[in-house]
Amino acid sequence: MLYRFIALLFILQGCAYVYHTQIGEVVSNQDFVSIPFEILISETGVNIQEAGAIGRAVIHDRNAGNNLQAAAAIISLFQMGDRTGQPVYSGDNYADRVYELLYEKCPSGQISGLQSVREMNKYPVVSGEIVKVRGYCLKRKTNPVRKKI
Amino acid sequence: MKLVISLFTLLFIASCAQVRSVSQTSIPAKRTNAVTAEVKNNIFFLFNFRTDYVNDLTTQLKNKCENGRVEGILTKDVIITYFPIIYYQEHITAEGYCAK
Fold first, then answer.
1. In this predicted complex, what is the ipTM?
2. Is 0.80 topped by the overall pTM?
3. How far is Cα B99 from Cα B25, in angstroms, rounded to an integer?
4. B77 touches chain A (CB under 8 A)
5. Looking at the domain assignment, is residue B27 inside a domain?
6. Counted domains in chain B
7. Is residue A70 scored above 70 in pLDDT?
Protein backbone atom coordinates (compact mmCIF):
# COMPACT_ATOMS: atom_id res chain seq x y z
CA MET A 1 0.00 0.00 0.00
CA LEU A 2 2.83 2.36 0.93
CA TYR A 3 4.62 1.57 -2.35
CA ARG A 4 1.46 2.37 -4.28
CA PHE A 5 1.14 5.67 -2.45
CA ILE A 6 4.77 6.62 -3.15
CA ALA A 7 4.40 5.58 -6.80
CA LEU A 8 1.25 7.68 -7.16
CA LEU A 9 2.98 10.64 -5.47
CA PHE A 10 5.80 10.53 -8.02
CA ILE A 11 3.42 10.11 -10.94
CA LEU A 12 1.13 12.92 -9.80
CA GLN A 13 3.89 15.52 -9.50
CA GLY A 14 3.75 18.50 -11.83
CA CYS A 15 6.94 19.73 -13.43
CA ALA A 16 8.25 22.14 -16.02
CA TYR A 17 10.84 21.19 -18.64
CA VAL A 18 12.79 23.31 -21.11
CA TYR A 19 13.90 21.44 -24.25
CA HIS A 20 15.21 24.07 -26.60
CA THR A 21 16.19 27.73 -26.40
CA GLN A 22 17.18 30.00 -29.24
CA ILE A 23 17.90 33.73 -29.30
CA GLY A 24 17.93 35.97 -32.36
CA GLU A 25 19.81 39.23 -32.89
CA VAL A 26 19.42 41.81 -30.15
CA VAL A 27 19.12 45.45 -31.16
CA SER A 28 19.53 48.25 -28.67
CA ASN A 29 18.95 51.64 -30.28
CA GLN A 30 17.91 54.90 -28.67
CA ASP A 31 15.93 55.93 -31.75
CA PHE A 32 13.53 53.02 -31.21
CA VAL A 33 11.10 52.05 -28.48
CA SER A 34 11.18 48.32 -27.58
CA ILE A 35 7.71 46.94 -26.96
CA PRO A 36 7.83 43.44 -25.42
CA PHE A 37 5.50 40.71 -26.68
CA GLU A 38 4.94 37.04 -25.98
CA ILE A 39 3.31 34.29 -28.01
CA LEU A 40 2.28 31.00 -26.44
CA ILE A 41 1.13 28.02 -28.46
CA SER A 42 0.13 24.94 -26.52
CA GLU A 43 -1.11 21.46 -27.30
CA THR A 44 -2.09 18.61 -24.98
CA GLY A 45 0.32 15.70 -24.79
CA VAL A 46 -0.66 12.28 -23.41
CA ASN A 47 1.53 9.77 -21.59
CA ILE A 48 -0.05 6.39 -22.24
CA GLN A 49 2.37 4.48 -19.98
CA GLU A 50 1.62 6.76 -17.06
CA ALA A 51 -2.10 6.29 -17.63
CA GLY A 52 -1.54 2.53 -17.57
CA ALA A 53 0.52 2.73 -14.36
CA ILE A 54 -2.15 4.80 -12.60
CA GLY A 55 -4.84 2.41 -13.82
CA ARG A 56 -2.88 -0.52 -12.46
CA ALA A 57 -2.40 1.17 -9.09
CA VAL A 58 -6.06 2.12 -8.80
CA ILE A 59 -7.72 -1.05 -10.09
CA HIS A 60 -7.92 -3.72 -7.37
CA ASP A 61 -8.20 -6.64 -9.80
CA ARG A 62 -4.55 -7.59 -10.42
CA ASN A 63 -5.22 -9.29 -13.77
CA ALA A 64 -7.18 -6.36 -15.13
CA GLY A 65 -4.42 -3.99 -13.95
CA ASN A 66 -1.72 -6.06 -15.65
CA ASN A 67 -3.74 -6.21 -18.87
CA LEU A 68 -4.18 -2.44 -18.81
CA GLN A 69 -0.47 -1.87 -18.39
CA ALA A 70 0.32 -4.38 -21.15
CA ALA A 71 -2.05 -2.51 -23.49
CA ALA A 72 -0.32 0.77 -22.58
CA ALA A 73 3.08 -0.81 -23.29
CA ILE A 74 1.92 -2.03 -26.73
CA ILE A 75 0.57 1.43 -27.63
CA SER A 76 3.80 3.08 -26.51
CA LEU A 77 5.75 0.76 -28.85
CA PHE A 78 4.15 2.65 -31.74
CA GLN A 79 5.37 5.94 -30.28
CA MET A 80 9.06 5.08 -30.17
CA GLY A 81 11.77 7.43 -31.39
CA ASP A 82 13.47 10.66 -30.46
CA ARG A 83 11.14 13.37 -29.31
CA THR A 84 10.78 16.31 -27.00
CA GLY A 85 7.89 16.10 -24.57
CA GLN A 86 5.00 13.72 -24.97
CA PRO A 87 3.07 12.67 -28.07
CA VAL A 88 0.16 14.88 -29.18
CA TYR A 89 -2.80 13.58 -31.11
CA SER A 90 -3.63 16.65 -33.15
CA GLY A 91 -0.85 16.36 -35.72
CA ASP A 92 2.53 17.99 -35.91
CA ASN A 93 1.46 21.37 -37.24
CA TYR A 94 0.13 23.07 -34.13
CA ALA A 95 3.21 25.27 -33.93
CA ASP A 96 2.93 26.48 -37.52
CA ARG A 97 0.82 29.44 -36.45
CA VAL A 98 3.87 31.15 -34.91
CA TYR A 99 4.59 33.02 -38.12
CA GLU A 100 1.17 34.64 -38.44
CA LEU A 101 0.92 35.38 -34.69
CA LEU A 102 4.30 37.06 -34.88
CA TYR A 103 3.07 39.21 -37.73
CA GLU A 104 -0.02 40.15 -35.70
CA LYS A 105 2.09 41.15 -32.70
CA CYS A 106 4.62 43.13 -34.71
CA PRO A 107 3.34 44.15 -38.16
CA SER A 108 6.43 46.31 -38.81
CA GLY A 109 8.61 43.17 -38.73
CA GLN A 110 11.33 45.03 -36.83
CA ILE A 111 11.92 42.56 -34.01
CA SER A 112 14.77 42.44 -31.51
CA GLY A 113 15.84 39.61 -29.22
CA LEU A 114 13.49 37.02 -30.64
CA GLN A 115 13.58 34.15 -28.15
CA SER A 116 12.08 30.77 -29.05
CA VAL A 117 11.60 28.26 -26.26
CA ARG A 118 10.19 24.76 -26.50
CA GLU A 119 8.94 23.67 -23.11
CA MET A 120 6.58 21.26 -21.41
CA ASN A 121 4.40 21.60 -18.35
CA LYS A 122 3.83 18.11 -17.02
CA TYR A 123 0.76 17.01 -15.11
CA PRO A 124 -0.51 13.53 -14.28
CA VAL A 125 -0.99 11.65 -17.59
CA VAL A 126 -1.35 14.82 -19.67
CA SER A 127 1.08 17.62 -20.43
CA GLY A 128 1.10 21.05 -21.99
CA GLU A 129 3.42 20.93 -25.01
CA ILE A 130 4.33 24.58 -25.35
CA VAL A 131 6.11 26.70 -27.92
CA LYS A 132 6.88 30.12 -26.47
CA VAL A 133 8.18 33.04 -28.51
CA ARG A 134 9.18 36.29 -26.83
CA GLY A 135 10.75 39.38 -28.26
CA TYR A 136 10.67 43.13 -28.62
CA CYS A 137 8.86 44.94 -31.40
CA LEU A 138 10.83 48.04 -32.38
CA LYS A 139 8.96 51.24 -33.08
CA ARG A 140 10.70 54.42 -34.12
CA LYS A 141 10.36 57.24 -31.61
CA THR A 142 8.22 60.05 -32.91
CA ASN A 143 9.68 63.52 -32.37
CA PRO A 144 7.24 66.04 -30.91
CA VAL A 145 6.03 68.42 -33.62
CA ARG A 146 7.18 71.97 -33.02
CA LYS A 147 4.54 74.55 -33.49
CA LYS A 148 5.47 77.50 -35.64
CA ILE A 149 5.00 80.79 -33.90
CA MET B 1 28.96 -4.50 1.25
CA LYS B 2 32.13 -2.75 0.10
CA LEU B 3 31.13 -3.33 -3.49
CA VAL B 4 27.73 -1.73 -2.92
CA ILE B 5 29.30 1.29 -1.21
CA SER B 6 31.85 1.63 -4.05
CA LEU B 7 29.09 1.46 -6.65
CA PHE B 8 27.04 4.10 -4.87
CA THR B 9 30.10 6.34 -4.49
CA LEU B 10 30.87 5.98 -8.19
CA LEU B 11 27.28 6.77 -9.08
CA PHE B 12 27.24 9.92 -6.98
CA ILE B 13 30.56 11.35 -8.06
CA ALA B 14 29.80 10.84 -11.75
CA SER B 15 28.89 14.31 -12.93
CA CYS B 16 27.86 14.44 -16.54
CA ALA B 17 26.72 17.07 -19.01
CA GLN B 18 24.19 16.78 -21.80
CA VAL B 19 23.81 19.35 -24.57
CA ARG B 20 20.10 19.68 -25.21
CA SER B 21 20.19 22.24 -27.98
CA VAL B 22 22.52 24.55 -29.87
CA SER B 23 21.55 27.34 -32.24
CA GLN B 24 23.56 29.95 -34.14
CA THR B 25 22.51 33.12 -35.95
CA SER B 26 24.51 34.55 -38.86
CA ILE B 27 28.01 35.66 -37.85
CA PRO B 28 29.12 39.27 -38.60
CA ALA B 29 32.32 40.10 -40.49
CA LYS B 30 33.56 42.30 -37.66
CA ARG B 31 34.04 40.11 -34.62
CA THR B 32 35.84 42.15 -32.03
CA ASN B 33 33.55 42.92 -29.13
CA ALA B 34 32.31 39.57 -27.77
CA VAL B 35 29.46 39.59 -25.27
CA THR B 36 28.11 36.70 -23.23
CA ALA B 37 25.06 36.03 -21.12
CA GLU B 38 24.17 33.04 -19.00
CA VAL B 39 21.37 31.78 -16.81
CA LYS B 40 21.29 28.82 -14.45
CA ASN B 41 18.50 26.88 -12.86
CA ASN B 42 19.06 24.41 -10.03
CA ILE B 43 16.84 21.36 -9.82
CA PHE B 44 16.61 19.31 -6.64
CA PHE B 45 15.01 15.85 -6.54
CA LEU B 46 13.74 16.25 -10.14
CA PHE B 47 11.26 18.93 -9.08
CA ASN B 48 11.22 21.99 -11.31
CA PHE B 49 8.35 24.41 -11.64
CA ARG B 50 9.81 27.34 -13.55
CA THR B 51 11.01 28.08 -17.02
CA ASP B 52 11.03 31.88 -16.84
CA TYR B 53 14.72 31.99 -15.95
CA VAL B 54 15.40 31.83 -19.71
CA ASN B 55 13.88 35.29 -20.20
CA ASP B 56 16.84 37.01 -18.56
CA LEU B 57 19.22 36.14 -21.43
CA THR B 58 17.95 38.80 -23.84
CA THR B 59 18.02 41.49 -21.15
CA GLN B 60 21.62 40.60 -20.25
CA LEU B 61 22.73 40.82 -23.89
CA LYS B 62 20.87 44.09 -24.35
CA ASN B 63 22.54 45.62 -21.29
CA LYS B 64 25.99 44.50 -22.44
CA CYS B 65 25.60 46.10 -25.86
CA GLU B 66 23.88 49.42 -25.33
CA ASN B 67 23.15 51.34 -28.50
CA GLY B 68 24.40 48.46 -30.61
CA ARG B 69 23.41 45.19 -32.18
CA VAL B 70 24.33 41.73 -30.90
CA GLU B 71 24.93 39.43 -33.87
CA GLY B 72 26.20 35.90 -34.40
CA ILE B 73 24.56 34.60 -31.24
CA LEU B 74 25.41 31.04 -30.24
CA THR B 75 22.82 29.74 -27.78
CA LYS B 76 23.75 26.58 -25.92
CA ASP B 77 21.40 24.72 -23.60
CA VAL B 78 23.13 22.23 -21.29
CA ILE B 79 21.96 20.14 -18.37
CA ILE B 80 24.57 19.00 -15.86
CA THR B 81 24.00 16.10 -13.50
CA TYR B 82 25.96 16.64 -10.31
CA PHE B 83 24.28 13.96 -8.19
CA PRO B 84 21.81 11.66 -9.98
CA ILE B 85 18.20 12.21 -8.86
CA ILE B 86 19.35 14.67 -6.16
CA TYR B 87 20.83 17.68 -7.97
CA TYR B 88 20.80 18.85 -11.58
CA GLN B 89 21.62 22.22 -13.08
CA GLU B 90 20.24 23.68 -16.30
CA HIS B 91 22.77 26.05 -17.81
CA ILE B 92 21.96 28.21 -20.85
CA THR B 93 24.60 30.46 -22.40
CA ALA B 94 24.37 32.96 -25.23
CA GLU B 95 27.53 34.33 -26.86
CA GLY B 96 27.58 36.93 -29.59
CA TYR B 97 29.36 39.97 -31.02
CA CYS B 98 28.36 43.54 -30.28
CA ALA B 99 28.37 45.67 -33.42
CA LYS B 100 28.05 49.45 -33.07
1. 0.79
2. no
3. 14
4. yes
5. yes
6. 1
7. yes
